[in-house]
Write a structure and sequence with these properties.
With 73 residues, this protein is mostly helical. It has one helix spanning 22-33.
Length: 73
């Protein structure tokens, strides 16, 4: 059963070969020229006091993996 309040799923696939429009290039230039002091963070909730942040490592160690070959009999 679908909840009517969930909305629609929107899927987007970026095609890097598509050039940016003039409006998109102008927006990127405006953002690039904007100093950090003008960024509005008022709509971002504050981080909880007990939040723990860490930098995740690699999913697996590449030094312990060995290349292998599978042949069809």
């Amino acid at each position: 059963m679908s909840n009517p309040n969930t909305g629609k799923i929107v899927r987007f696939t970026l095609n890097p070969a598509t050039p940016l429009s003039e409006d998109e290039l102008a927006m990127l230039a405006r953002l690039d020229a904007m100093p950090d002091s003008e960024i509005d963070f008022s709509d971002i909730p504050e981080s909880p006091a007990d939040a723990v942040w860490y930098k995740p490592g690699a999913f697996f160690s590449t030094s312990e993996t060995m290349p292998w070959l599978m042949r069809k009999p």
